[in-house]
Design brief:
Elements (H helix, E strand, L loop, with lengths): L1 E4 L3 H14 L6 H7 L8 H10 L3 E5 L2 E9 L11 H8 L2 E2 L2 E2 L5 E9 L8 H13 L5 E7 L3 H10 L2 E7 L4 E8 L2
Parallel strand pairs: 6-7
Antiparallel strand pairs: 1-2, 2-3, 3-6, 4-5, 7-9, 8-9
Length: 182
């Protein structure tokens, strides 16, 4: 397995393929707690824009994308309507007595590991790659995880994320998490 930054449109399409299989709409409810799921659906045009702004982190095995962890810059906050409430919540939050709006952060836009590779350290390795590539430029990595996704919550807390806030929107109840790189 190799951890790398996306360098082709084919790799972006493989991200979408993996996302589709693991989307909440396609994971039976009796498996979600154990295996996790992703909530947001991207499209190729958006992924190309995101990757042009900041290279995306992937894990590749034998030429196939087996995991990804997407960087979502603040500039993209209005491009995915379901994420607007999260960004609006960020505008009202502080981290260690500093408004998030003045901190330099990006959002973990989504992280997913293909089923055969789960539990093998790939999730943690993706985040370590993020830290090694982006920690010199950003103070925090933020994300939100559904409270109904305990596998993802445990994995994020094990990496080093801390819960900043729990809130509900029209779609779910969410934990906003931060990972301090300063």
């Amino acid at each position: 397995m190799e951890l790398k930054l996306v360098d082709s449109k084919e790799e972006l399409q493989q991200i979408l393929d993996l996302q589709e299989v693991n989307h909440v709409d396609h994971v039976p409810s009796n498996i979600r707690d154990k295996e996790g799921f992703v909530t947001v659906k991207h499209n190729i045009d958006l992924l190309v824009k995101m990757n042009n702004a900041v290279p995306q982190v992937i894990a590749v095995d034998d030429g196939k994308v087996i995991a990804y962890a997407l960087v979502m810059l603040k500039d993209f906050k209005n491009l995915i309507p379901v994420l607007v409430p999260m960004y609006s919540t960020f505008d009202d939050l502080t981290y260690e007595n500093t408004k998030l709006t003045v901190l330099n952060y990006y959002v973990m836009g989504q992280v997913c590991v293909d089923k055969p590779y789960r539990g093998s350290g790939v999730f943690h390795a993706l985040y370590q790659k993020h830290k090694s590539v982006f920690s010199q430029k950003y103070d925090l990595c933020l994300t939100e995880v559904s409270t109904s996704n305990p596998r993802s919550m445990r994995a994020h807390l094990n990496v080093g994320f801390k819960i900043l806030k729990t809130y509900k929107d029209a779609t779910d109840e969410w934990n906003i998490l931060s990972w301090d790189w300063s």
